[in-house]
């Protein structure tokens, strides 16, 4: 396998996208102190799944994102892609037919991160297992720093064994064995906790059984009460329906009588109006007759006075006549 290309965007001092092509032969990166040569090695470590901040010369993971400078504003994401060439060999597993494999890692300032193999999202575990299958590891001989060769030569037997296991490609299986052992230990602990829970549950079973019987009895009683309430409600409904029917009949009868009385009342009111009209007419006639009676009485009085006057005159004439005869 061969490192063919490295693409860096927003990682540490690389604000803009930078592409490094590693051609045949010996490739070297040269430059003055502080120009970012070590950041390229950090980018390779990071895209391979390095999680240790100290190794990446950072205090936290978002320190690997370009934080701005006097002439450039900060960015919100860092992304590194590493392209590996098969170089006459076969990639392991599902990548057997690929001539190149691209491993990518992306992180954001909010803490979210993403791993991809050939632009397909995957887990960190998938990246590490792929690298182990092709004999690349982050912690051993794959990346040799300054003074690291002396450490390899002077390493203890157990450290050398780690290098050999990684080169032989058995680190993945060893890691799987350790993960399986951890899972087995976790399972054992879960079994112990489960046994404790079962013991506690058994001790509570009698109490729960009594509570269950009480609950069943409660349900039975509640069902009986509900049925009784439904029966009473049905009876009450029937009684109320019968009463409503009776009241409706009474209401209809009263309504009929009321309509009949209203009709009679209207007739009586019309009759009273007619009587009022006749009374007014009679009063007018009576008034005219009263006036006529008053006129007649006046004429009678006048006539009576005339008669009285005539009677006096007759008497007077008779007296004179008698006096003249004597």
Strand order of the largest sheet: 2-1-3-4-5-6
Task: Profile the largest sheet.
Answer: 6 strands, antiparallel
Summarize model confidence as the mean pLDDT: 85
| Amount of beta strand | 5-15%
- Helix fraction, binned, reads 55-70%
Between the first and last Cα atoms, what is the distance in angstroms?
200 Å
SS-based class: alpha+beta
Question: Got a strand count?
Answer: 6
Morphology call? elongated
Alpha carbon gyration radius: 63 Å
Q: What string gives the helices and strands in order?
A: EEHEEEEHHHH
| Spans where pLDDT lies below 50 across 5 or more residues | none
**With helices defined by DSSP (H or I, 4 residues minimum), what is the helix count?**
5
Which descriptors apply to this entry?
elongated; alpha+beta; 6-stranded antiparallel beta sheet; 60% helix; 326 residues; 12% strand; 5 helices
Outline the structure in words:
The protein has 326 residues and is α+β, with helices and mostly antiparallel strands. Helices cover 60% and strands 12% of the residues. The protein has five helices and six strands, in the order E-E-H-E-E-E-E-H-H-H-H. A six-stranded antiparallel beta sheet has the order 2-1-3-4-5-6. The longest helix has 155 residues, at 171-325. It is elongated.
Topology of this structure?
Elements: E1 2-9, E2 18-21, H1 37-47, E3 77-85, E4 100-108, E5 113-117, E6 120-122, H2 124-133, H3 148-153, H4 157-168, H5 171-325
């Amino acid at each position: 396998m061969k490192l063919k290309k490295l693409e860096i965007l927003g990682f540490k001092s690389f604000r803009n996208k930078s592409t490094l092509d590693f051609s045949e032969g010996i490739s070297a990166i040269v430059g003055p102190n502080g120009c970012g040569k070590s950041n390229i090695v950090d980018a390779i470590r990071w895209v391979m799944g390095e999680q240790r901040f100290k190794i990446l010369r950072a205090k936290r993971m978002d320190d690997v994102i370009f934080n701005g400078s006097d002439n450039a504003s900060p960015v919100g994401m860092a992304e590194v892609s590493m392209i590996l060439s098969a170089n006459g060999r076969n990639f392991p597993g599902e990548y057997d037919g690929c001539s190149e494999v691209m491993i990518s890692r992306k992180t954001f300032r909010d803490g979210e991160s993403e791993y991809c193999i050939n632009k397909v999202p995957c887990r960190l575990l998938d990246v590490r297992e792929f690298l182990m299958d092709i004999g690349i590891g982050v912690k051993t001989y794959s990346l040799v720093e300054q003074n690291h060769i002396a450490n390899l030569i002077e390493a203890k037997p157990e450290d050398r064994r780690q290098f050999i296991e990684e080169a032989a490609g058995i680190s993945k299986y060893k890691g799987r064995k350790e993960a399986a052992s951890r899972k087995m230990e976790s399972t054992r602990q879960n079994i112990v906790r489960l046994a404790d829970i079962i013991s506690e549950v058994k001790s509570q079973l009698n109490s729960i059984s009594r509570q269950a019987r009480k609950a069943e009895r409660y349900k039975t009683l509640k069902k009986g009460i509900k049925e009784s309430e439904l029966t009473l409600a049905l009876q009450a409904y029937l009684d109320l329906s019968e009463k409503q029917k009776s009241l409706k009949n009474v209401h209809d009868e009263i309504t009929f009588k009321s309509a009949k009385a209203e009709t009679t009342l209207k007739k009586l009111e019309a009759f009273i109006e007619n009587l009022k009209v006749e009374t007014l007419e009679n009063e007018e006639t009576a008034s005219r007759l009263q006036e006529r009676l008053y006129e007649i009485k006046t004429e009678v009085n006048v006539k009576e006075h005339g008669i009285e006057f005539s009677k006096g005159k007759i008497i007077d004439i008779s007296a004179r006549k008698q006096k003249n005869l004597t």
